[in-house]
Design goal:
D-Maltodextrin-Binding Protein, domain 2, about 325 residues, 13 helices, globular, five-stranded mixed beta sheet, single chain, alpha/beta, six-stranded mixed beta sheet
């Protein structure tokens, strides 16, 4: 009888053990990806009453973003908050969001990505082994460099600019006349040593990674809206019951909305800080000239896959 009670207690205890979620991000605490990941951890642990427990692996401790995605595919880790560019390797449809000068502002980006077209893009990831949950953001990308002020594409010629491992990002900077150099994150040392002249990222990156120490010039080009895709391993996802799937989906979406608002609310203060730190900021570069240089990218091989081209044309029509 004593053995039976003990055994019952043992099984009862195990039945309430939290389900562990390993979540990978490449950036350090305080960065955009980490803010979304941390908010998700807070929400799902609260809403599940301890049924889920999230461990965040930050600062590239699991490798670069492509390597994190490979681990999500295999269910070595269950989730990731990943910049959009590296998804090129796995699913070409996602590259449509990286098309230059696609969205005019944050509201338009939210309208598209939170709507039916965004849902289609997330759904398309399943063929590659990912469950797309939501879109959080880096924000609109801008150019920094250590050489000279950039007011027009003519000023970019020959600059060695770090880009993500993304075919479309490399194509954009080639079209603008730069020497695009794919390089995994982080890149402070390479900028400091002059291995690369510049980089392009949203404003939070310049602040959090202290690029104002090694990059003199900032041009507010806003050339690409840089998103994160918040993903889960499809292998893992399919083991969950419907209630848990719904709870995780909602918690990640709410975390993404929170993170977007947090990111945007800080941009004015970031610009002020960067000026105070000595960066020369070109606030009104010749955007029309930049647009003209990249206008024909839609005709590149990158966008000739029928599904990719159809999605790009749908979004271009929707943002007119």
């Amino acid at each position: 009888m004593v053995l039976s009670v003990a055994t019952l207690f043992l099984f009862s205890g195990n039945s309430f053990a939290a389900t562990k979620i390993k979540l990978g991000v490449v950036t350090k605490p305080g960065s955009a990806q980490n803010i979304a990941a941390q908010k998700f951890k807070e929400l799902i642990e609260l809403r599940s009453k301890g049924g889920f427990e999230v461990k965040i692996y930050h600062s590239a401790s699991l490798g670069n973003e492509t390597e994190i995605l490979q681990q999500v595919q295999m269910n070595t880790i269950q989730m990731g908050v990943i910049t959009g560019g590296p998804f090129d390797t796995f699913n070409p449809i996602s590259r449509v969001i990286n098309y230059p000068f696609l969205f005019k502002d944050n509201a338009q980006a939210d309208e598209i990505l939170d709507g039916p077209l965004g849902t289609q893009i997330l759904k398309s990831l399943e063929i590659s082994g990912f469950k797309g949950l939501s879109f959080s953001e880096n924000g609109f990308r801008n150019l920094t460099n250590s050489k000279k002020p950039v007011k027009s594409p003519d000023d970019i010629k020959g600059l060695k600019v770090r880009v993500m491992a993304s075919a479309i990002h490399k194509a954009i900077w080639s079209a603008l006349g730069a020497n695009p150099t794919p390089m995994p994150w982080p890149i402070y040392t390479e900028l400091e040593q002059g291995v690369i002249d510049g980089q392009e990222n949203p404003l939070w990156v310049m602040e959090v990674y202290k690029f104002y120490e090694i990059q003199k010039y900032l041009s507010l080009t806003r050339h690409v809206y840089s998103y994160h895709i918040d993903v889960a391993s499809l292998k893992w996802w399919e083991t969950l019951d419907a209630n848990d799937q719904e709870m995780i989906q909602k918690a990640m979406y709410d975390a993404a909305v929170y993170q977007r608002h947090d990111n945007r609310s800080k941009d004015a203060a970031r610009l002020k800080l960067l000026k105070e730190k000595g960066m020369e900021i070109i606030e009104n570069p010749d955007i029309a000239a930049f647009r003209a240089k990249v206008a024909n990218l839609k005709d590149m091989d990158l966008y000739q896959d029928p599904q990719v081209k159809e999605m790009l044309l749908k979004i271009m029509e929707a943002v007119k």
